[in-house]
Amino acid sequence: MPSPHPAVPDPVVIDTDPGVDDAIALLMALSSPQMDVVGLTTTAGNVPIGPATRNALAILESVGRTDIPVSKGATRPVRGRYAYARQVHSAEGLTHPLPAPATHTTDTGAVPFLSATLRAHPGAVTVIALGPLTNLARLHRDQPSVLPLAKRVLVMGGAVQSPGNVTPHAEFNFYSDPTAARLVVESGIPLTLIDMAPCRQVFLTREDVEGARASTEAGNLAERLLSGWFRQDPTRERFYMYDPLTLVAAADPHAIKFRSVTMTVDDSITTDDSTLWGRCRVLDETEGPISIAEPGGVDVPTSLQLIRELLGWSQPAAI
C-alpha cells in the first residue's frame, strides 16, 4: 500500500520532454500529496525542444498550475542528435490537443534554474528526469558540486536487464543522448534508475482506458491523452507506464525493490559501433551508486493502484 502522506511534501523538480507518458507522470506529480512540484525543466526527446516546452506550459495551464515555473533546456544533446518519437506520441507530442499556452518560460534556462534551486535548498529537492539526460549532464559537467545537493535523483532510462525499445541494446532516452547518460551514470551520484525491465511490467490496456472514470481534471486529461494514443493505431493494446512508474518510485518506496550496482553507458566516445550507443553495462553486480529494480521487484497491483489514485480514477470493478 502507498506510504502515509508526509506532513510536508517534498519539493520536486521534473525534467521532462512531453510526450504522452511524460504528461501522465506530470499530472500524477501535480496530484500527489507527497510532492510539491517547484519547477519543470524541459528537454528535447520525444519531440523537439519547442513543442516539448509548449506542452509543459499547456499541461500546467490545463490544470490551473501556472504558478509552477518552466525553464527551457538545450536544443541539442551533449553529442549527436536527438532521435525524436513523433510516430509514438504524435507530431506535437500530445495525442489530445491543448490550447496554446498564454504563459511563458522563465528568463533563465534549465541548467541555471536547476543550479539555483538545488543551491538554495541543499539536501531537500528531489530531481526526477523523464527524458534524455542532457540538462543533468550539462549541469554536472559545468558545476559538478551541484547535482549531489539533490535529496534524490530518479531517472527513467536505460535497458539494464532487458532489450531496448530503439535498438536491441538501447532504451529511447539513453539512445537519444548516450553521452549525457554516460556522464550522469558515471558521476558517482546516487541514482534511482527505472529502466525498461520494470517499466514493461506496468501497463494500461485499451479496455482500462475505455473504462476510466475520472473525478479530477487531471484524470480527465489523462484519459483523453490515452484515448487519443490508442485511437492513433487500432493495433495498440497496451500503454506501458514508463514515466508514470518513475513517479510511483518517487511517491511510494515500497512499490519497487531495488539493488545497487555500478554501471556505465556506451556512447561514441567508448565505442565506434553506433548500434551499441545507449547500451548499459553493469560493472559490479553487488554494489554501487545506481539503484535498479530487482528481477520481479515491482509490486504491479500497488503501482497501478497508485497511478489510478493520483489520476483520480475509480478502481476497476472486481471480477
Structure description:
The strands form 2 sheets. A 9-stranded mixed sheet has the order 3-2-1-4-5-6-11-9-10, with helices on both faces. Strands 7-8 form a two-stranded antiparallel ribbon. The chain is built from 12 helices and 11 strands. The model has no long low-confidence stretch (mean pLDDT 93). It is α/β, with parallel strands linked by helices and 319 residues long. Helix 1 (20-31) runs antiparallel to helix 10 (217-232), helix 1 packs parallel to helix 11 (242-251) and helix 4 crosses helix 5 (134-142).
Q: In terms of topology, how is this protein built?
A:
Blueprint lengths: L9 E7 L3 H12 L3 E8 L6 H14 L7 E2 L14 H4 L20 H11 L5 E4 L4 H9 L9 E5 L15 H5 L1 H8 L5 E4 L1 H4 L3 E3 H5 L6 H16 L5 E3 L1 H10 L4 E10 L14 E5 L5 E9 L1 H12 L8
Parallel strand pairs: 1-2, 1-4, 2-3, 4-5, 5-6, 6-11
Antiparallel strand pairs: 7-8, 9-10, 9-11
Helix pairs in contact: 1-10, 1-11, 4-5, 5-7
How does the overall form come out from the CA principal axes? Answer: globular
Distance between the termini: 21 Å
- The radius of gyration over CA amounts to 18 Å
Mean pLDDT: 93
Number of strands: 11
Summarize the helix and strand pattern as letters. Answer: EHEHEHHEHEHHEHEHHEHEEEH
What is the chains' assembly state?
Answer: single chain
**Fraction of residues in helix:** 25-40%
